[in-house]
Amino acid sequence: MRKVFIGYTSYQDVVYQVAKHSIERQSEDVKCYPIIQQALRDLGIYYRPVDTNGSTEFSITRFLTPWLAGYKGWVMFCDNDVLALGDINELFDLADDKYAIMCVKHSHKPTETVKLDGQKQTQYPRKNWSSVVLWNLEHPKNKQITPELVNEVSPLYLHRFMWLEDHEIGEITRDWNFLVDWYDSKTNSKPKLLHYTDGGPYFKNYQNCDFSENWKAEFKLMTGKEFTDSDLID
């Protein structure tokens, strides 16, 4: 069974549920698990102060993935605002043991100051690299990523993978972390994993974003009903 850990934000449960549904529906022997900050705090595993620059509740807790998975094998992490259009096993099949992690090496430099539902848009090198990651948990460098370290180091140290050398970071194609409204599906190969990084159709201001109908179709498959204005996240 291959494991996918998905970031979880408490007031966006439907976003997580649709992401999970899209992955498990199309990917045999793949199981999704939420990374819930409050649960980790209640257990004393995560105790750092709230990240005021983080736009989600999993901006830092995503880096507990190696510990949560027991430092064994290859696992995947992704943000909650993704939608699988294909079989995630195809992504796992790209795993190369010479790398500690593998990700899409975006050159993402937004000019807006806000995103999602009014959250601050932050700028930093390697932005969005950590939003979809294949982790090689048996690589010795990743043994460093303990709960103690995640609670202590700077967010940039984590998001920029600063415990790794450049050659230890493998690259996967942007199809597997396709930034909606940033990448053009007409000039790129067909996306396999959409990422509504600035906001998806579950937010009022993004109802007509690219691929909005794909997300709504998945919602209908999951719930048996159409997505309406009453379902929007406030």
TrEMBL record:
Instruction: Fetch the InterPro entries from UniProt.
Output: Nucleotide-diphossugar_trans
Q: Which UniProt keywords apply?
A: Transferase
Q: Name one GO molecular function term.
A: transferase activity
Regions crossing the membrane: none
Q: Which Gene3D superfamilies match?
A: Spore Coat Polysaccharide Biosynthesis Protein SpsA, Chain A
Tree of life domain: Bacteria
PANTHER family per UniProt: EXPRESSED PROTEIN, PROTEIN CDI
What this protein is called in its record is Glycosyltransferase
